[in-house]
Design goal:
The strands form 3 sheets. The chain has a 7-stranded mixed beta sheet with strand order 4-10-9-8-7-5-6, sandwiched between helices. Strands 1-2-3-13 form a 4-stranded mixed beta sheet. The protein has a 4-stranded antiparallel beta sheet with strand order 11-12-15-14, with helices on one face. It has 2 domains: 3-56 and 331-436, Alpha-Beta Complex (Aspartate Aminotransferase, domain 1), CATH 3.90.1150; 63-329, Type I PLP-dependent aspartate aminotransferase-like (Major domain) (Aspartate Aminotransferase, domain 2, 3-Layer(aba) Sandwich). It has helices at residues 3-16, 61-71, 83-94, 113-128, 145-148, 182-205, 231-241, 294-303, 314-329, 332-353, 382-394, 419-436, and strands spanning 32-34, 37-39, 45-48, 106-110, 132-136, 164-167, 210-216, 245-249, 274-277, 288-292, 357-363, 366-371, 397-398, 400-402, 408-411. The chain has 12 helices and 15 strands. A hairpin with a 5-residue loop joins strand 2 (37-39) and strand 3 (45-48). The longest helix is centred in the middle third of the chain and has 24 residues, at 182-205. Helix 2 (61-71) packs antiparallel against helix 9 (314-329), helix 3 packs across helix 9 (314-329) and helix 11 crosses helix 12. With 437 residues, the protein is an alpha/beta fold. Helices cover 39% and strands 15% of the residues.
Length: 437
């Protein structure tokens, strides 16, 4: 490590403390970003295959211009009228089928996905009068005190509060219901959803009824999953019958990420009661939201007011509008679908060649590549995944690892990631797999 970077690392450790972590055995020092690329102080560029924060690309000129223009004009909070804030709420709701096209039409703005999920929990408890929560195992929903308790990947099961029940995520590769034939996949969804019923019963035994059932609809911390047919519809039916609300955490799967619709839950043909959104909304600017129905919003308002000093400020609204403009004007959804199809085919071709690639899953521009010691046993190989990740870092490609066993390569690039970028990733990934294997 160069002396200047070593000094910066030491300063960081002193200034930020040991709880903060860094990616990679040899940390990457970044000073600039553009589109799908990141640059270090020496000008070396890295292909960003990980960063969903910069949704429409690092430093998109239209987003930067909108931010700068509004910041030079006015920035205050939502206790004053402002056209931009209302316009953004209307435009955002329209992507969900509202305000006239569907029930999800009321936006409440926050700054982060954590805040969004925290507010969703508060709303659900106020509206239902219940305290219980059902989540999936190995979930991650944020880092406030309340939401940390819902993030079951973060701490031991023995420390979970009694109001929380975790159910197995719908993994048809490693979970209990694995049949991937067309008929089997159809059957797996309701069978996994039935576990939510067990969660309801387990909460009842502890004296709780569910306030909500929440899922990240890309199941990112589970190693990237796609919900099998019938899973969300049946799970939502079960939790609503028990008096709870259905919450879609779209921080990971939303804003065209999966390539079929704007939001991941739409792939399953369901309508949640509450949708939470985060980092992709602002292309790197801290912007997040909770969207719900007028009825739920009114019921909540009868008990509580809501205000967030920075959530929904005019600069954030200008940024959010610019992101939506880019998505529409540049055909981002269609682009993600086309590039994702090309990338998926390449990953599947790699899997056919390499015994250590046990599974490829995901869609659009969000994939998990599961590394195993051998396909027959499906024994997870976290060591191989880490070595491939580090090999790619040294060869100019940045991605991460995920999953309960940390053996899944997580590919989640900016939405402007194109076919040429995918081809480069596939080339470098094949070289890494061949080297490590």
């Amino acid at each position: 490590m160069p002396a200047a970077e070593h000094s910066l690392l030491q300063r960081r450790q002193r200034a930020l403390g040991p709880a903060y972590s860094l990616f990679y055995e040899r940390p990457v020092h970044l000073v600039r970003g553009e589109g799908a690329w990141l640059y270090d102080p020496e000008g070396r560029r890295y292909l960003d295959c990980y960063n969903n924060v910069a949704s429409v690309g690092h430093c998109h000129p239209r987003v930067v211009e909108a931010l700068s223009r509004q910041a030079a004009t006015l920035n205050t909070h939502t206790r004053y009228l402002h056209e931009g804030v209302v316009k953004y709420a209307e435009r955002l709701a329209a992507t969900l089928g509202g305000p006239q096209g569907g029930p999800l039409s009321v936006c409440m703005f926050v700054c982060t996905g954590t805040e969004a999920n925290d507010l969703a929990l508060r709303i659900a408890r106020a509206v239902t009068g219940n305290q219980g929560v059902i989540v999936t195992e190995d979930a991650y929903h944020g880092n406030s005190t309340a939401v940390f308790e819902l993030s079951t990947e973060e701490y031991p099961a023995a420390e979970r509060p009694d109001y929380l029940r975790a159910v197995e995520a719908p993994c048809t590769y490693r979970g209990r219901f694995r049949d991937r034939s067309a008929q089997g996949s159809e059957a797996a969804g309701p069978r996994y959803a039935a576990l939510v019923e067990e969660g309801v019963e387990a909460l009842a035994a502890r004296g709780h009824r569910p306030a909500l059932f929440i899922t990240d609809n890309a199941f990112s911390s589970n190693g990237v999953l796609t919900a099998p047919p019938g899973y969300l519809s049946e799970a939502y039916r079960i939790v609503r019958a028990a008096g709870g609300l259905a919450v879609a955490d779209e921080v990971q799967s939303g804003l065209c990420r999966l390539g079929e619709h704007y939001w991941g839950f739409q792939d399953s043909g369901v309508i949640p009661d509450i949708v939470t959104m985060g980092k992709p909304l602002g292309d790197g600017h801290p912007l997040a939201a909770v969207v719900t129905t007028p009825e739920i919003a009114a019921t909540f308002a009868r008990r509580y007011g809501y205000f967030n000093t920075f959530g929904g400020n005019p600069v954030s609204a200008a940024v959010g509008l610019a992101v939506l403009d880019v998505i529409e004007d540049e055909g981002i959804l269609q682009h993600v679908h086309a590039t994702g199809s090309f990338l998926r085919q390449g990953l599947e071709d790699l899997a056919e060649q390499c015994e250590q690639v046990g599974d490829v899953r995901g869609k659009g521009l969000f994939y998990g590549v599961e590394l195993v010691r051998e396909r027959a046993s499906r024994q997870p190989d976290a060591v191989a995944a880490a070595r491939i990740r580090e090999h790619l870092r040294e060869n100019g490609v940045l991605l991460g690892t995920s999953g309960p066993h940390d053996n899944v390569l997580k590919i989640r690039p900016p939405l402007v990631f194109g076919r040429e970028h995918a081809a480069l990733l596939l080339d470098r990934l094949q070289a890494a797999v061949e080297t490590i294997a």
